[in-house]
């Protein structure tokens, strides 16, 4: 069982820093494997609650090295909900990597635990459009949502804007899953790089000009 690790987050920061500096990405310090994965970027301003800046991943298993390399950039630069992260934001960033495990079909839309399960919600709306969306296991707890609020939010995330009724909720299919995750702030990344490589990341030399 592969668990999310510090080295995976470091590789995501390395990848994003290299994007701004045009340097090569240092080799990853974790073993290759095949797993579903997500990369989440948040921005911490003045010690406040971290705010989402991008979160994209894959619910299908794929190679960890290329997966984290791809999704580190995709989530930072191409999450359509947010403008691309700029180099000047790096010192305020926090990165979380998630590896998804234990996929199971839920018996109904309430058959999952807040803080333990992520969910893939799938349904056909009244206009016969198939829709789906997912939340990682930590989202509902962080938002302070009830189960019904989480389900309703997922239905909105899927693009459905019509009325949400109890009969519609009962028609959704839920695949629940669990995850391991690791979170690191940019300042901890800099400390790690200095300790393990003897130099600070090159950001700031060219990236802000």
TrEMBL record:
Q: Where is the AMMECR1 domain?
A: 1-193
The highest taxon in the source lineage is Eukaryota
Pfam families assigned: AMMECR1 (PF01871)
Which SUPFAM superfamilies does the record associate with it?
AMMECR1-like
Instruction: Give the InterPro entries listed for this entry.
Output: AMMECR1, AMMECR1_dom_sf, AMMECR1_domain, AMMECR1_N
Matches recorded under NCBIfam families:
TIGR00296 family protein
* Record's protein name: AMMECR1 domain-containing protein
Source organism (scientific name): Araucaria cunninghamii
């Amino acid at each position: 069982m592969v668990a999310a690790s510090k080295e995976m987050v470091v590789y995501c920061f390395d990848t994003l820093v290299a994007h701004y500096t045009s340097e090569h990405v240092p080799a990853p310090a974790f073993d290759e494997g095949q797993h579903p994965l997500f990369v989440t970027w948040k921005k911490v301003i003045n010690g406040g609650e971290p705010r989402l800046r991008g979160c994209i991943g894959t619910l299908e298993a794929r190679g960890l090295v290329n997966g984290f390399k791809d999704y580190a950039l995709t989530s930072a630069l191409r999450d359509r909900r947010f403008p691309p992260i700029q180099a000047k934001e790096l010192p305020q960033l926090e990165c979380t990597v998630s590896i998804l495990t234990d996929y199971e079909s839920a018996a109904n839309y309430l058959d999952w635990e807040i803080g333990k399960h992520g969910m893939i919600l799938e349904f056909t709306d009244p206009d016969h459009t198939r829709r789906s969306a997912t939340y990682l296991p930590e989202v509902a707890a962080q938002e302070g949502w009830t189960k019904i609020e989480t389900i309703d939010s997922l239905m909105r995330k899927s693009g459905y804007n019509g009325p949400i009724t109890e009969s519609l909720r009962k028609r959704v299919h839920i695949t629940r899953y669990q995850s391991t995750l690791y979170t690191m702030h940019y300042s901890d990344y800099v400390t790690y790089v200095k300790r393990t490589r003897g130099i600070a990341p090159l950001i700031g030399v060219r990236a802000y000009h």
